[in-house]
Amino acid sequence: MSVEAKETVMGNKNEFEPLIVAFCCNWCSYAGADLAGTSRLSYPANVKIIRVPCSCRVNANFVLRAFQRGADGVVIAGCHPGDCHYSTGNYYTRRRFSLLTNFLEYVGIEQERFKVDWISAAEGNKFATVMNDVLEKVHRLGPNRKLRDARWKR
Amino acid sequence: MQRIGVFVCWCGTNIAGTVNIEKVIAAAGEMPGVVYAKDYQYMCSAVGQNLVKNTIKEQKLDRVVIASCSPRMHEATFRKTAKVAGLNPYLVEVANIREHCSWIHKNKEEATKKAIALTRAAVAKVALNTALIAGEIGVESRALVIGGGIAGIQTALDIAEAGYEVDIIEKSPSIGGKMAQIDKTFPTLDCSACILTPKMVDVSTHPNINIYTYSELENVKGYVGNFEVTMNQRARSVNMEKCIGCGICTDKCPSKKAKSEFEEGLRNRSAIYTPFPQAIPNVPVIDREACIKFKTGKCGLCETVCPAGAIEFSQEDTKITKKYGAIVVAIGYDIIALDKFGEYAYTNHQDVITSLEFERLTNAAGPTGGKLVRPSDHKKPKKVVFVQCVGSRDKTERGKTYCSKICCMYTAKHAMLIRDKYPDIETYVFYIDVRTPGKNFDEFHRRAVEEYGVNYIKGMVGKIFPDGEKLQVHGVDALTGDTIKIDADMVVLAAATKAKEDAEDLGRKLSISTDTNNFFTEAHPKLKPVETHCAGIYLAGACQGPKDIPETVAQASGAAAKAIGLLSKDKLVNNPCISEVDEKICSGCLACTKICPYDAITSKVITFNDHGKITKRVVAQVNKALCQGCGGCTVACRPGAIDIKGFTNKQILAEVDALCR
Amino acid sequence: MEKIGLKVRARAKEALENREVDEVMGWKKGEFWYDVYPVFITEANEADDLIWDAFCVNNLSKYLIQKQKENKKVGVFLKGCDSLGFNQLLKDNRIDRDQVVIYGLPCVGMVDPEKVKKEGLNKGLLEIKRSKDEITFVTKEGEKKILGRQFDYDKCLACRYPNPVVYDELLDTEIAREVSEMDRFKDVEAIEKMSITERFEYWSNQFSKCIRCNACRNICPACSCEKCVFDNVNAGVSSKASVDSEEQFFHITRAYHVAGRCVDCGECTRVCPAGIPLDQLNHKIMKDINELYGKYDAGVDVSQDAPLVTYKLDDADSFTEHGKGGK
C-alpha cells in the first residue's frame, strides 16, 4: 500500500460523519423536503428525516433518544406559526421546544445541536439551507458525546 | 416473527441513477423481520403493483415496505395495492428514497447508504404497525357558503342546482360584494350590474338557498360532513318579514351624514339605509351608530312613516346554529389602506382616488350619475393619471410582495372608458410591467393604447402634490430616463388587493391555514386548488389569492363541484390514524383536552377493581370522528397514556433507533 | 406553635366526632427529636396524637389522591407550600375539592435537622420547640433559646408563600413577611454563567449521583401520574440501567414534565438522598417561562391555564433568529 493510500484509509477512519435526525411535519416541512428533492437542491446525506403528522407530535423523549443513540444534531421542523395544518399544533411546539432548547443548553448541550425551525411546503430552499447550516455547525462542534449511551454502537 | 416484504423502486434512473439498488436489496434482506426483498423499475406502474400484490400472496407477507418516492406521492397508491391483495392498508410503510435521497445526493455511495438507512427505519416502523380500520360517519346534506359576493353567489347557485340546500352567510346588509360596486367588466366592457343582479335574484328566489345577511360566523365545531356552525345575525332593527322595501324610511330619515360604504364614501347615506337599490334582501338596516333614536332616544321617524310597521328598535342579535356537511369560504378581498403612501397624497387630496372609487364615479348609478368629475370641485378633469402597482409587488413593509393581478386590466378599462366618453380628456398610465395573460386580455390592452390613445409610461411616480387647482405628478420614464411632469386634474391609484382583515381569525375558527399574506392556503397549489387542508372546507374567489371575475367564477364552480361530491355521499370514511387512550395509564389530568384543536377529547369516570377494592377515576376519551390525528395530545400526556395510531411513540422511537445505526 | 398544636388536635377531634369528614390527615411525632411522619386518623380519640411543630415539613396533599379514589371526605392540614401542591393536584384533576376540608396553617419555616447537627446542637437533644423565629433546644440539662432562621431549610428561607393560598379554615393568623423576588433565580444565573463544558460537567456529576430511588418523583405534587412514563412499557423509554445517559434522560425528562407545573416547594431537593439540586433544574424552566410567556406561579391560581397547554399568537421563541415565529 502506498503512503498516500494509507493516509486516505486513515483519514476516512478518523473522518467525522455526523448524523442529524430531523423530525418533519407531514404537511409543511416534509413537503418542503420533498420540494428540495424535486428542485434537485443539495444537502449532505447525513440528514435523515422522520415523518410526523405535526411538529406538535414530537415528544422531547424523541429528541433525547436521538442524542442517546448517537445523533450529533436533532432538528424539528414544522409549518410556520399560523399556518399549521391542524391550525394550532405548532403554537404548542413553539412553547414546548423554546423551553427545551434553553433547558438542553442549561444542562450543557450546545444549542447548535438542537434546532427547531419553521419550513413551509414551498420552502424547499429553506429546507436545504437549514440542514446545511445545522450540519456545518455540528461539523464544527465535532461528534456529540453528551447524553450518548455508550452501550449503543452506531 | 413478522414476514416483511421490501420493494425497492428504481423510478427509472431517478432513484437507480444515484442509489445502488442491488445493495439496498441485499441490505434489506438482512433487516429483522424481512423475508423478501425485490426491486422493479417502476413500482407504481400496473406491473409493479401486480408484483407487490402477487408477492404479498405468494410470500404470505404480513407487512410491506415500499422504498420509492415520497409517501405524499404514492402512499395512498400502495395502500390500495395492499388492500387488493388482502393486506390491511395500514401495514404498508413508504421509505422516501427519491425526494429525500437520490434527488438530493450526488455521491452514489453516500446515497446508497442513506437509502439503506431510510429503508431500515421504515422496516423498524412497519414491524410495529397494526391493522387499522377506518370508521364511517354520516354526512349532513347541506352546505354553507361564507360570503355573498360573486364567488359565494356562484357556488351557492351551483350547489342548489344540484339539489342540495345551501345557506349563504354575508357580513354586510346585502349580498353582491365587490362586483356590485363595479361599473363595467373587462375585457368585454359589459355592465357589471347587468350580469350580477340577475344572479342575485336567482339566489334570493331559489328554493334551496337561504341567505343570512348582516351575519357573521361565530364558531365552528365538528368535522367533514358534520360541521356545526353558530352564526350571529346582527340586529337589523327592521323586521325582514314585514318590510315591503318601499324606501320611505330611508327618504324620511333625518340623519344623513353617514358615509356610504357602497359608494366608497363618495356619497352620504341615511342612518336607516339599503346599501344600493338592487340590494338583496331589499330590506333596510339601521346603522345604530348613526341613528338619532339610538343615540338620543328622540326621533323614531322611520317607525312613524313605515306603512308596514316593520321598524323594530328593540331587535337584538340572534344566534343561529345549524349543521352542514360542507363549507365553502368565499369572503373575497379588500384593498390596502394608502395612509402610508404619503408621496401619492391620497389621504390629503380629494382628487387622488382609488380605482374602486373611480368605479363608483364612472358608474351611471353612482354619486355623480356616471359623469366624470373631480370629487373636490365637481369640475370635469382634463388630464387623468393612473398609477399602477400602488403597494403591489412592493417588498417594503407598507406594501404587498405579490402582484394584485387585476389592476393592469381594470386600469386599461378605466382609461378606455374615459377616452370613450370624453375623447378630450388625456389619460396617462404609469406602470412597472403590463401583465395581461388571459383570454382576450392583451388584445384589450392593445386597444386601449392603439385605438383609444391611452398614454402608457413605463416607470413609477415619485411624487404627487397639489399645485393650485392642479395635481403635479412627477415620475420617471424608465425607458428614456427622462423626468416626466404632468399637471393632472385627477389621479387614480391602483391600490394593491389584500386579504380580508378577519381572514386569519376566520381561518382559525375553521381550522384552515392562511399564507404569509393571510390569503387562505389551498391543499395543493396545482392539484387541489379549491380544497383546504381541512376536509370538507373549500375555497372560492379572491380570499385564496388575487383573482379576476372569470377566475373567481370558475373557482366557485369548482368549489361547488367538490362540495356537491361530498354532499352526495351517504357515508364518509375517516382517517384511522387517530389518538387512543390507555385507560390503565391515564391519570385524568386532561392536559390533552386543553390543547386539542378539535375539542375531540373529553373525560369520563371509570371504575377500577384495584385488588378487590372498587375505585373510581377520571380518564380522557377520544371522539373518533372529531380527532384529526395531529398528535399534540400525545406530547401533552406525560405518562404516554394517549398515543396516536400509525405514529405511536414506539414506532417513532424505533425509527430513531434504526436511523442511529 | 404549641398553641396552634392544641387547635390542630381540637379541630381534628371535632371534625371526626361530628362526622364532618371520614378521615383526618396530619402529622405525628416519631421516636427522635426530628422525627415526624404523616398519619391518617378515623377516630376522634386518635386526634391526641396529632402535632404541629418545626418538623412538619411533609406535604400531605398527595395522599389525597388515594383517598379520593375511595370516595372519602378528608380533612387535611396544609401549610403555604403544601397548598400550592394541593392546587396543582386539583388542576391535574387528581383530587376533588368538594371532598376535602383544608385546615390552613401559616408557617414560619421548618427546621432542617442537618443544620442542627452541623452546629453540634443535636447532642442530648430531646425536643425542639419553635415560636416564630425563636428556637428552643430542650435537653436533659435544660433549655437553650436561639433567635434567628439559621436552622431553617434553604427552601424555607426562599419561601414566597408562608400562608396557604387555599383553605377552608385558617388555624392561625396570617404571617406578614416580606418576600424578595430579587434573588429568586440566582442559582440559575450562576449556572448560566458557566461555559457549556462546565455546565455539562456540573450536571453530569450531579446526575451520575442518582440512584434512581424515585424519591423526587414520589414526593412531588406535580409528579402525580397514575403510572410514570418511566414505568410505562408502551412509551418505550422505561430504561433504568445505571448508566449516565439514562440518568440524564430521566432528570431532563423529570424537570421537563413538571415545566409550568412545579410549584417550587423544594421537596424534591429536600428528599434526594444523593443531594442532587433538582430545584436548580426546576428554577431554570420557571425563569424561562416567566421571561418568555409572562409571570406564572404554578399552584397559585387554579383557573389560570398552565403555560404549556396554552399559547399566544405572538409568543416569542428561543430558536429562530428573530425570536418571533410569526408570519
TrEMBL record, chain A:
Key words of the record: Iron, Iron-sulfur, Metal-binding, Oxidoreductase
Domain F420-non-reducing hydrogenase iron-sulfur subunit D: 20-142
GO molecular function: iron-sulfur cluster binding; metal ion binding; oxidoreductase activity
The organism's place on the tree of life at top rank: Bacteria
Keyword NAD: no
Pfam families: FlpD (PF02662)
InterPro entries, A to Z: MvhD/FlpD (IPR003813)
Stated name of the protein: Coenzyme F420-reducing hydrogenase delta subunit
Source species: Marinisporobacter balticus
TrEMBL record, chain B:
Domain of life, source organism: Bacteria
Pfam families, per database record: Fer4, Fer4_6, NAD_binding_8
Cofactor: FAD
One Gene Ontology molecular-function label: oxidoreductase activity
Domain (4Fe-4S ferredoxin-type): residue spans on this chain: 234-265, 282-316, 577-606, 618-647
Gene3D superfamilies: 3.30.70.20, FAD/NAD(P)-binding domain, NAD(P)-binding Rossmann-like Domain
Protein name: Heterodisulfide reductase subunit A
Keywords, comma-separated and alphabetical: 4Fe-4S, FAD, Flavoprotein, Iron, Iron-sulfur, Metal-binding, Oxidoreductase
Family listed: Belongs to the HdrA family.
Automatic annotation (TrEMBL), chain C:
InterPro entries: 4Fe4S_Fe-S-bd, 4Fe4S_Fe_S_CS, Helical_ferredxn
All residue ranges annotated as the 4Fe-4S ferredoxin-type domain in the record: 200-231, 253-284
Keyword Iron-sulfur: yes
Keywords for this protein: Iron, Iron-sulfur, Metal-binding
Lineage start: Bacteria, Bacillati, Bacillota, Clostridia, Peptostreptococcales
Keyword Iron-sulfur (UniProt): yes
TM stretches of this protein: none
Entry superkingdom: Bacteria
Identification of the protein by name: 4Fe-4S dicluster protein
A molecular function GO annotation: metal ion binding
